[in-house]
Amino acid sequence: MNQDVVLKMSLSRRPELKASASGKTSIVYGPFDGGEYITYDSSQNSPRGFGVRVGKTGKSYIVQRAINGKVTKWVVGKVGDLTIDEARDKAREGIQISIKHGVTPTKVERERAANELTLGDCFDDYKSYLVKRNPPAKENSLLSMAKGRSKFKDWDDRKVTSLSSKMIVDRFDALVPAGRTAAEAACRWANAAVNRAIKVEAEQAKSQRRDPTLEYNPFITLKTQEMYRTRAQLAQDYKRKGIRNPMDPMDNLGKWVQAVWNKKAANPTGADFLLLTLLWGMRKTEASQVKWRHRIDAAEAAHSSWVDLDKRKVYLFDPKNRSDHELPIAPCALELLRRRDEEGPGRVSKWVFPARSSRSATGHYSDCNSLLKYVREEAGIDVLRPHDLRRTFGRIAEDLGFPYSTIQRLLNHVRMADSTVSYSEQSWPRLAERMERLEEAILGTYPVALAALRPVASAEPSTNRANLAP
What we know:
alpha+beta; DNA polymerase, domain 1; 3 domains; 10 strands
């Protein structure tokens, strides 16, 4: 067999040896319609069992022979990628590997590949998994992982199997002084990436009927040695650093609502945004992307967050926990929204909170930090971050004595798979009543705002806002 013979082989033409009357043999190509076939190379310089397989998807060099009493077969390479001489040399190397290990060289290579995975390989594969999974990871999660990976940049080319527990602990200790939260996050990302590699290797090994070559995750030592903070320790650290600061309805909440209300004339969009973010208990990025349902079509509504004034409902599409969320709109929030729709600066925009500049990349309001700073200073509050509005909402729900399942539902902490917390259509009125109680408790800390937004028909409060007991 030579290169010319290999190139002429096809599904419709199969080479055959034909003897002439004088006894001389030559290669002829007869018609063939029997599907794929293998032609073995009988050349003296060819290893035994080497040949060419012709199939529907192309031609490949293969080896099929008994190794240690067991018939094995593997692909050496594609005909288009190797000459026949190169394929013979590669086949000889593969046969030696097969004799040494008792399995095909392909299997040896697969096992070696898993055993030689670097930490960088694990991060690359994990990122690809997060992007391609359904649903894909949020951009913030990918950014967080990238920051975590940067803490191990010098280990990108280091094999996972070469990482010892001591190395992991030493690296963790070195990262902590710059920020314990960042150090824990980085190591958790690395742990998740390696776990993913171990899982993939286990599945591949099972399908190939071999033992996995990557089974141990060295980052597990941080959990084993209890180096991560517990929930109680996290809570203490947050309190000490002032990271979580829900407002107190009996102290500074009323001052904050008043300060926001005073900003409505100068910055109606920003003030309304802060008020509704609090009244809905939403994350800043969730509230900012809400659109008017009556100003978008059904196709856009299917993948957008919106408020429906007629149905008195706010809907969040694909929030942080990937579970779509909807809440009833209580009377005061509804009145505020109707005024925005009829008279507000965004009355021609699809966004409930449109951006001030027409050159905005997103089109919607996105940065409340400056306004929040002025409001905080006016209210005499030392520390207050946007997410503290959501924490305030949750705190007041607890003060009102709402069941834990209700608070989970209001904050969208309920997972779709959680069958213990189920809200039917019949429960919507109950949820609406509790949203109204929350609204009364929040705005009641500054009666001027409550009176200005409460519809005339609801002149008398349905609950005693001075008393947060259920």
